[in-house]
Specification:
This protein is of the alpha+beta class. The protein has helices spanning 3-6, 67-76, and strands at 10-12, 18-29, 40-48, 81-84, 88-91, 96-98.
């Protein structure tokens, strides 16, 4: 599956309740840089209840300028959360379903213990 095809896909809890849409993905770096690139793996997906548009980096706690853009994007993405790859039950062509007991983390990665 191509990540771009997944963006905007509805995200549902185990009971089928719609929680939002896939707005972004988070990756981890698996080792030191190689000659061209370093290895990465998918940490999880970010779901947004209001918008499937990009955060443009404004989910990071220290980014606040330009002020109007930061405020608009924070408002559009309020309630967004990161769900780890292990908490994803099924990725289908028209939806993503989360596992029972999934944990919703901050999209800024501040509370996953995997920064």
């Amino acid at each position: 599956m191509i990540l771009g095809d997944l963006l905007g896909t509805p995200v549902h809890d185990p009971g089928g309740v719609r929680l939002g849409r896939v707005a972004d993905a988070r990756f981890t770096i698996d080792g030191p840089p190689g000659q061209l690139l370093t290895g990465t793996s998918l940490l999880g997906l970010v779901a947004s209840p209001h918008s499937a548009s990009s955060f443009l980096g404004y989910e990071r706690t220290g980014v606040a300028r330009p002020w109007p853009v930061a405020q608009l994007l924070r408002w559009r993405h309020s309630g967004s959360f990161l769900v780890l790859w292990a908490d994803i039950d099924i990725i289908g062509t028209d939806s993503v379903r989360l596992r029972e007991g999934f944990t919703a983390y901050s999209p800024a990665l501040s509370d996953t213990g995997q920064e």
